[in-house]
Amino acid sequence: MTEEIILKAEPRSETKGGNPKRMLKEDILPAVVYGPGSKNINLKLNLQKFIKVFEIAGESKVVNLKVGDETMQVFIHRLQHNPITNKISHVDFYQFKKDHKFSIEIPINFVGESRAIKEDGGVLVTDIDSIQIECLYTNLISEVEVDLGKLENLNDSIHVSDLKFTEGINVLTSPERVIVTVQPMRTQEEEQAQEEEGEVEAETSSEETEETEEKGDGVQEGDADPTKEEGEKVKSEEKKE
Asked: Whole-prediction pTM value?
């Protein structure tokens, strides 16, 4: 049985000691809890304890959030970071209902070993590292296993449609989406050729931009537009006739 993840929090007042900047200096993290059919609840909690819980729970495991005598089952839903220090500055918790379906991102856990990598020297290219699903709490899974052993040959791929899920889980990620691919290792000559091709494309784009600007500079503001003068001349001759 999976061990319960417990995190303690306290009510947070917006007026008394609830200044977010002051709280963060004291290693206290502002938080909010919301969910279907419930009001938003402002909370505060110890930042370091939250970081330890987040390392275990991520955004796909249930956290038992204890506020006084009440315990709420929530997910860590969204984190905000300080743009300068990158330190966590706020957290949103999502309180779900056990009899209501909800959508959630489930991390992918890569297992096994690819023959194409081990024997053919292929390179593993990961396209996505999580799957979006919808389910009830009773059907919730904490991760999705992807077996790399299925990648036997170079250029083999595993798609979302190749995964098997238990009954009650609706996969929201497109079934055509590529999860992982084994690509041949490029030679030094191929990498150099690709770099040169990119440089040529950049030079061509720059030249086209310069030509466009030169054409636009042909008629300056205040100059007579030759096409406009020609049109006025034709109209004048028509009137004379």
From this structure: 0.66
